[in-house]
Each structure stands twice: as C-alpha cells, then as structure tokens.
Amino acid sequence: MLITRRGIGLGATALAAASVFGPVAAAAGRKVASPALDPATLVHPELREMVKIFTERMPNRPPFTAESLATARTFSKNFVPKPLPTPAIEEKLIPGRAGSPEVKVFVIGAKTDGKPRPAVVFIHGGGYILGSAMGEIVSAQTLAAELDCLVVSVDYRLAPETKFPGSLDDNYAALQWLYSNAEALGVDKKRIAVVGGSAGGGQAAVLAIAARDRGEIPLCYQVLIYPMLDDRTGSTRMPPPFIGTYNWKAGDNKFGWTALLGVPAGSSSVPKGAVPARVEDLSGLPPTFIGVGSLDLFGEEDMSYAQRLVHAGVPTKLLVVPGAIHGFDQMAAETRIAKEFTTAWRAELAERFAVLA
C-alpha cells in the first residue's frame, strides 16, 4: 500500500488504518474492537521463515530492564558488521553543543572535487538505549554510494545514562558541523537531509523539528523508517494484540521512552520537543517519507504522524507494507519486499536531491 500526499487526505489515511488495523466504523463514529487474530497468519509469506526462526531463538523474551540492558548491549556488539571497502570512512570528533562533550561522527564518501553534492545526517536506531553508528555503518556506506552523497553518521549518547536533550544535542551538533563546513566537504547546503530508522527515525524527526524551530539550518528532506514517535504507545495507548508481537514490543517501548525522557512513558507532561507525536505544530517541516510495516508496533503512530504532516501542509509520502514487522528490511534484507521498501525511500530521497540540484 503506497499513499502519497496527493492521496493521503483524511479519507485515504482512514482507509489505510482500516486495512491495517481492522474494521473501523468511521461513518458512525463507533469504536470497533479488533478481532482476535493469530499474528503469525498475518506475517508476509516472505518473512514467515525469518519470524519463525526469530521466535524459536528468543521465545517470550521479557521486556528490557535496567539489569538486562548491559547484557543486551554487550550481545549486540557481536552483530556489528565489517565496513565495506568503499566508500571511505573517516572518524572524527566534532565540537558538541554548549556544555556537551565532543561528538563522534563517521564521515562517509567525502569528495572535494567536482560540483557540490547532497549530504545526509544518518542516525542509527536502537530504542534510544542500544546501538551505535558502527552498527549501521554498511547501511550508511550503501546510501552514500547509491546516491553519490556525503553521509555523516552520528554516534549520539544513549539513554538512560544520557537523557533528553542529550541525544538531540549530539545530532544537532553533527548537523551544525556539516552545515558550517559544507564548502570544505564539497556539500551543497540546499541539499542536506536527515535519515533514521526506528529510534533513529524518532531522533531524525526531533532533529527536523529542532532545526525548524531554531531557524539556523534548512533541511531539504526527512526519511523516517518505522520511526519511534510516541511514548504513549505501549504505555497509555495499546495497539490491537496482534500488532507489535515480534521484535520490538510494548514493554520495550515503554522502557526505551522512560529511559530517554527521565519520566515514565505516557506521563501527562514530558520534556518539550522530545516526543514528535506530542509536538502540536508540524508546519514548516521538510518534505517527508515515512515507511512502516503493518504489524509494526509503530504502525498506528507513524500513520497518524503522516496524516498530521499532510494536514500541516508538509509534502508527505507514507508507505505501509502489509505483513511486515519491525526491522524487517534489516532482518530479511534479501527478500523482495525488503528490497522494494529500501528502493522506495531511497528513490524519494534521490528525487528530492535531483529536483534541488
């Protein structure tokens, strides 16, 4: 299901939500309970074997806790990929925001010859509590090569050790450094975008909002891949029971958001600018791509955010992949639906870069 700004008005988005989350009595304004469904039967055929293996290896995994987080971080280091031979990667320490430490970034695919090129601030995922820039270095390299752009991947500080706005400060410092050094880096200032997946998508959304509010650096596009946008999901707002069954679950989401915010997820008051879904005014944000799977815990909040962007006059494309779970494009990268998903958002970003060239 592909929904563009030309067809994502209130009616189109309501239809999308109905097809993904079950029947909706929109005309009568009634709230209809979701049917009891076996989530395994809703998984896309290309993903079923992967989901089966994943479930067998990690049956009934409990939500993250403060005690289990250190173990999870150590375990995740086993899956850091070996970088590709090209494009080249340069590790740098750049100045942090006022009062913050230096920020480690990886500058990928730098070229100073020829015409100025577009650039991407790339933000890794991990529920705000896990992950690293090196953990997604191959994705960043591939993006730099395919779009012939410079990529700056940010190793922002994680929660709960660093609460909001620490990670935003790090990501904004990287954006500011890129913009200030655009000429030396061979970058076109008019073609700087932000890309992130999962918590990285949430970080990207927060960064775009901060850039708009501060009025210092214009972003030309934001790519939000199954972004983590709303602390209320899994805490005060629960999706149907067959949504968010695999990979990232409601309990994980509650823990991750609580770690970032410093207050319980779903609280009546949260730090200003920390939760994109709670930001009232979305006008003036850059054109946006949002992609998510229909079985992803973030499906409903991502569709809602896309709708609000459209209503705020922001050119927006929403792609909902039937039967896809959180992180499917990384976990099953060689499947047709994963390749089509990745091709879709990269094509949108490439088109935006081309239009502004």
Word description of this protein:
This protein has one domain: Rossmann fold (3-Layer(aba) Sandwich). Helix content is 37%, strand content 15%. The protein contains twelve helices and nine strands. A nine-stranded mixed sheet has the order 1-9-8-7-6-4-5-3-2, sandwiched between helices. α1 runs antiparallel to α10. The N terminus is likely disordered.
Features:
357 residues, disordered N terminus, Rossmann fold, single chain, nine-stranded mixed sheet, alpha/beta, 15% strand
Overall pLDDT confidence: 90
CATH class assignment? Alpha Beta
How many structural units, i.e. domains?
Answer: 1
Task: Look at the structure and name the CATH superfamily.
Answer: Alpha/Beta hydrolase fold, catalytic domain
Query: Per CATH, which architecture?
Result: 3-Layer(aba) Sandwich
**Based on helices, strands and strand pairing, what is the structural class?**
alpha/beta
Unreliable parts: 1-33
- The number of distinct β-strands equals 9
What integer value in Å does the Rg equal? 19 Å
| H/E series | EHHHHEEEHEHHEHEHEHEHH
- Count of helical segments? 12
CA-based shape: globular
**N/C terminus separation:** 30 Å
